[in-house]
Amino acid sequence: MSKVLIIYGSSTGNTESIAQKIGELIAAAGHEADVKNAADVNADNLTEGYDATLFGCSAWGEEELEMQDDFLPLFEAFDKAGLSGHKVAAFASGDQAYPHFCGAVDAIEERAKELGATVIAEGLKMEGDASNDPGAVSAFAQDIIKNL
Ligand SMILES: Cc1cc2nc3c(=O)[nH]c(=O)nc-3n(C[C@H](O)[C@H](O)[C@H](O)COP(=O)(O)O)c2cc1C
């Protein structure tokens, strides 16, 4: 059994619903999943005791990428989170009408890799909440479970 931390930053609940669904799927596969709001966590040694961490964050910029408000302080302190040698993956809800569709996914993956993390699944980028594309959420969760 692995222990997975799932952290989300979500303003209207879309990315939160994806986080909850991924948590349910990971738990259903026999692992432990802790789902937490980015507003309630501190970067210091965040990943300690976990085998993998999944980060979900929506984007709110127009021209430039702006990370969701609660997630930004965590992202800026990623170097304190213990990501070196840690398994990570990223997900988001977004809107294809914006130039950086689910841009936080790419930014999280890039920064995590810089810090020595291993990205264990292709980032999940989708519109709406988890119910909008259950197949995509399930495929992402299965990818994670396979690589734990
Ligand atoms: C002002 C504004 C800027 C936005 N910028 C982006 C963006 O850069 N990329 C994107 O994919 N979606 C963008 N969106 C759409 C939201 O990220 C999208 O509605 C998302 O589902 C919200 O997820 P949340 O409820 O988890 O916060 C933007 C929406 C608004 C109103």
What does this structure look like?
The chain is α/β, with parallel strands linked by helices. It has one domain (3-146): Rossmann fold. The chain is 30% helix and 22% strand. The chain has four helices and six strands, in the order βαββαβαββα. Strands 1, 2, 3, 4, 5 and 6 form a six-stranded parallel β-sheet that branches. α1 (14-28) crosses α4 (134-146). The longest helix has 15 residues, at 14-28. The protein starts with a strand and ends with a helix. 42% of the residues are buried. The structure holds flavin mononucleotide (FMN). The site of flavin mononucleotide has 22 residues, from α1 and β4.
CATH-assigned fold name: Rossmann fold
For CATH, the homologous superfamily is named as Flavodoxin domain
Q: Beta-strand level of the residues, as a percent range?
A: 15-25%
Bound molecules: flavin mononucleotide
State the order of secondary-structure elements, H for helix, E for strand.
EHEEHEHEEH
Largest sheet: 6 strands, parallel
Query: Which residues sit in consecutive blocks of at least 5 with pLDDT less than 50?
Result: none
| N- and C-termini, Cα separation | 9 Å
Reading off the top of the CATH hierarchy, the class is best stated as: Alpha Beta
Give the rounded overall mean pLDDT: 97
Total DSSP E strands: 6
User: What's the number of helices?
Assistant: 4
What's the CATH architecture? 3-Layer(aba) Sandwich
